[in-house]
User: Fold this.
Amino acid sequence: MASQNYYDVTEWAAGNAYDDIGEVINSIIADIKKRQRDSDIDGGGKPGAVIFIPSGDYHLRSQVKIDISYLKIQGSGHGFTSSSIRFNVPENEWTDLHELWPGGSRIMVDLTPSTEDEASGAAFYIKRKGSPRISSVEFENFCIDGLHFVDDGTDNPNPENTYTNGKTGIYIAGEQDSFRINGMGLVYLEHGITVYHADALSIHDNFIAECGSCIELRGWGQASKVADNLLGAGYKGYTIFAQNFGGLLIATNNIFPRGISSVHFDCVARSSITGNRFHSFYPGMVVLENNCSENLINSNHFYRSCEPWVPLKGFDNGLDDLYGIVSVNGNNNSIIANHFSEIIDKENILPVDAKPVIIHLVSGKGNYIAVNHIVAATEAAQPENAESCFSTQVEAMLSTQRAEPVDIIAVKVEKESVQNIILDTGTEKQVLLKRDVNAFRALPSVGGCRIND
Assistant:
């Protein structure tokens, strides 16, 4: 027997889920609030509910507004597929494609966002005032599809490549506790997930790609994790952004191009970036700014290459190769045991004839950099007749045999950054710093030659 606290959107009496699932879910939430009025009935009273979305395509014309705790919205498949690839295939070839659109339990965001209110384009808007904070709202295993990007007034010849439409998948506007976003698929949204004032937030095992920005943790927050996700933002936005955060764990994510950065910390302290695989077409893959302190960056793989796919060549994040793959403004951060692959042809290095910087200490003191391995080489020649974005990028990643070494600066320490320790992360020639205010140990020589020289 089904529980009265279990709802199927296709069986709810009010509205039509296929025409406007937002209206249906809002009606269900109103019913939950009507039935669960008492806060204490025999040690319980407001258990919340589960809202189930079967596989299918559902238009969302009304924003879902959530202001109750213990609500789980779940589907039966995250349904992700690349809209970017489809929109860059000639339309006369679409009939040969096995499928055209994302699938699974798919919510199609048909809102018209206001340019004056960023939250107006959110499919799901969550906020509750008062005490206690709203808690334990969960999103699981369905797709939120922004459908199309729009002309942004730039010189992009294809509006579907602008990463602009004013739409957001999940917008959490106020303080909350123990929210969970698991197994979701988010695509073609200007903002995938935006969260203010997070506490004990878990963003786990999602596929968030082809969004302007993927995950933005704004305002302030603590004790949260972003783990085991597949993420890829556009050239305008962040893949993972965190602001005024403490105790954030970013672990075992696979982050691929083309975000402005893979991880961007703004005044973040005592947090960890560990065990991730980062791939970017631009410098500034991990950025620590505004006095980020006591953070650990360890055991990550950084792969920097150049954009191989013709429709998106010519677009970047505006940074040159002197910026650094990792850029640090802050104190007492540790960058330990990471692998860097800087794979770039010399003609693609900016400024011309510059040596790309791998780790850049811009300001702050007491940072510790040790035993990082750096491989710097040219890209192998790419096939001229690559069949797809997928095959082009795979070819670029796997071609290593014809590469030649590239001169780099392993660590650059600006005069505003002092009392740092740099160990075994570059040769004498590859590390630039003031020896009287920093400690440095170069890589040892092998067979009379310095490693990587």
